[in-house]
Amino acid sequence: xxxxxxxxxxxxxxxxxxxxxxxxxxxxxxxxxxxxxxxxxxxxxxxxxxxxxxxxxxxxxxxxxxxxxxxxxxxxxxxxxxxxxxxxxxxxxxxxxxxxxxxxxxxxxxxxxxxxxxxxxxxxxxxxxxxxxxxxxxxxxxxxxxxxxxxxxxxxxxxxxxxxxxxxxxxxxxxxxxx
Length: 179
Known about the structure:
Elements: H1 4-13, H2 20-37, H3 40-54, E1 66-68, E2 75-77, E3 80-83, H4 90-108, H5 110-123, H6 129-149, H7 152-161, H8 168-177
Parallel strand pairs: 1-3
Antiparallel strand pairs: 2-3
Helix pairs in contact: 2-4, 3-4, 3-6, 4-6, 6-7, 6-8, 7-8
């Protein structure tokens, strides 16, 4: 989905001018490219594998994704929002979607996930909460992306992601556990 109101709000948060016509044109161009990588069958496979590997069930499979141009992160799970600019192409957007869908599934099953987060906290007692919750998410992202998209890009992306300031540490831990 494209929400010009949501997109404009983020532009204003960054104190940048918003051009609706330009934004819609760019959105259409990017989404046309994304649909070549993120097909309906791949979407179903991503959701099936996330459920399979976690043992969790989707409480709501009908999830709206908002695409915006300006955003402080690559994505956010609630509301599911993906930044489409500065994302290193459509494969990066697909990877970000998998990552955020893993968060969505986790939040839909928070009661069950609490125990896993407590276990991870005991295994990584010196890590911050944000890193602990992302170890699991990044491992899922890596496994699902490489299985669904079968592309070396995801391996190289995850290598680059290890240098990211926000979740880089979690990606590096995943790389240590699953080389």
